[in-house]
Amino acid sequence: MPPRQHLLGIWLLLTGSLIFAGLALLLWLDSTLALDGSQRPIIWILALAPGALVLVLGAILERRLFRPLRQFQVLLARLVAAPDAQTDYPLDGWLSPLQPDLDQIRSGWRSDRSRMRQAHEEGAARAAYIQQELESLLQVLDLPLLICDAHQRLLLFNPAAQKLFHDQPALGLGRQVSQLLPHTSLSEALGQLPADGSPRQLLLPAESRWLRCELRRLGARHGGAMIVLHDSTTELESEQEWRRALARLLPRLRGHTGALGSAAEALAHIENNRSLQQRFEQAIGDESKALTELVNDLTRVLESQQLRRSSLEETWSNDLFSTLQERLTAQAITLTAIGIPVWIRVDGPALLSMLHLLIQNLSRELNVSSLDIEALLGNQRVYLDLIWQGDPLNQQLLSHWRELPLFESELSPRVFDVLSQHDSDLWSLKRPGDNRACLRLPIPASSRGAVPEDTTPLAERPEFHDFSIAELPPPDTGQAQTPLEQLEMIVFDTETTGLNLRGGDRIISIAACRIVNGRLLAQDSFNQLVNPQRDIPQASTAIHGLVDADVTDAPPIDIVLPRFRSYVGSGVLVAHNAAFDLLAVRLGGEACGLSFEMPVLDTLLLSRAIDPTLEGHGLDALAERFQLVFPPGTRHTALGDARVTAELLLSLLPRLHARGIHTLEDALALQLWVELEHKR
Known about the structure:
Blueprint: H1 4-32, H2 39-81, H3 99-123, H4 125-140, E1 145-148, E2 154-157, H5 159-164, H6 177-180, H7 184-191, E3 200-206, E4 209-217, E5 225-231, H8 233-268, H9 274-308, E6 313-316, H10 317-328, E7 334-338, E8 343-346, H11 348-366, E9 370-377, E10 381-389, H12 395-402, H13 415-421, E11 427-430, E12 436-444, E13 489-496, E14 507-516, E15 519-529, H14 538-544, H15 548-551, H16 557-568, E16 572-575, H17 578-591, E17 600-602, H18 603-610, H19 619-625, H20 638-658, H21 664-679
Parallel strand pairs: 7-9, 13-16, 16-17
Antiparallel strand pairs: 1-2, 1-5, 3-4, 4-5, 6-8, 9-10, 10-12, 11-12, 13-14, 14-15
Helix pairs in contact: 1-2, 8-9, 9-13, 10-11, 16-17, 18-20, 18-21
Pfam families: PAS_4, RNase_T
GO molecular function, one term: DNA binding
GO cellular component, one term: cytosol
């Protein structure tokens, strides 16, 4: 059906032409024929009748046929794009007899979809169970885990990996591992893994960390690999410290040993020279003493290294205190935990043994059988206080306790070694506000904070895996021929200080979400406020609600855009009225040397191409047409608009397919045609 404005123009033109032609004919007849009073009304009616008839007929057709036809067109579009939409207005006019048939078609279509959905749910019940078990395992697995396909695209990552790469926008399903860990050695190792699944080890730098990678080939259909990551920074630093200590002690040890041997040999050959013998005996004594000190130093290095090899683990303070109370029962010592429990990061066995020893010595020294213990949060530390009624201990006694061994063994670590392992020390002080004193030990705090982690399942769980990504074409396949459903699409939106981008208006908010394998990933998003380094006009604030105070502490565009470019990766950009948002990021990119030359899909142009006869292709109009909902408060926010644009694109895809638009190349050609038509 032709556009409404075209039909309206034709109708008004035809009506006006007939009326003017009738008036001209009437004037000519009136001047040519001598019409009397009874003939003139009849001639007037006959001359103006065609124009009036077309005017009335056009109004009737618009009301009874053309408007119902447009409604019917919208209903068909909604039925294809959003078949489960429930609120539809009825047909009227001459198409109203079709309403029962349309209801029957719609009811049958929805009934078929319901049965298909039910069959799919029943058939996928076992898969859902396996998925839940897998996700439960992933949640408790402490080691970061990545699984990629044969083309090194991420199929799975667990929460530990998400925590490790929390500041990396390149972490996401379907993204290349090389975007997350850009090391040629990793890509080569993944391509050369043995098929029998035997592991390969790799050490990689990652900013300020060292990651030890264990790589295994998976026997799955996708032929991918599993990457287990371990942060080895602390271990390597400890290893280096151990090597430095040995490098310092061993040459000195060799020197004193050689000097001792030479002195002993010389002494054996001296006769009848008592003075020289005494000098060599003195030298042997001095060397023996120095050698003894060096052996003691070496022993301490060995003892401390034994502890350093024990990793610090997340521990709930009440669990530590309960275990300590059980150990003290045999000594008839009562330990009472007070205060609010917290998470701490400690070597549990070593710290328990040290606290046990210190409490036994406290009990003997102070002659007390009851102590309190409390964990206090400090600045990135937790203070463990052993509390008693009385005065603080003197420093001399604490110095003696630092040298006490934990066990009755020659190589037993000392209290000082455990303190060093936790970067801690001992001191005693008076507790403020009461007549009590304490022995205080600062220990590392945990990043979990002061409350246990909530293990309640999320209502909407993050998406950590999608093995169907392995079925997508290889990354080196030309994007132009890639089906639209198989594209990685980054749907983005910006908010700016105004509409005059070339005149100085700038981005104040940029957000994006990702569509992978035809699905909008619920938890995969980029959302960042930007400091425009200029004032936000009130007229712009009235639209997006952002004021200067909201962006004062936000990073500038030259910090945000590189992170956004990393998030986009090799994906296809999508936006609604993309010309504006694309200009905003390209102008910002020019200032920091970034290029945004990837393909861009515009949902505004695609909608115009699909429904050229319908009016209203703005985001609000299309959201209403396809029953897409903005959550409260998200309209005119960058992330809210980006998410609805993504849902709009997914609604348009089946209608594009119905018109033969299957690949990215087809969609770009369609957009170009719409732009050319719009400029005419």
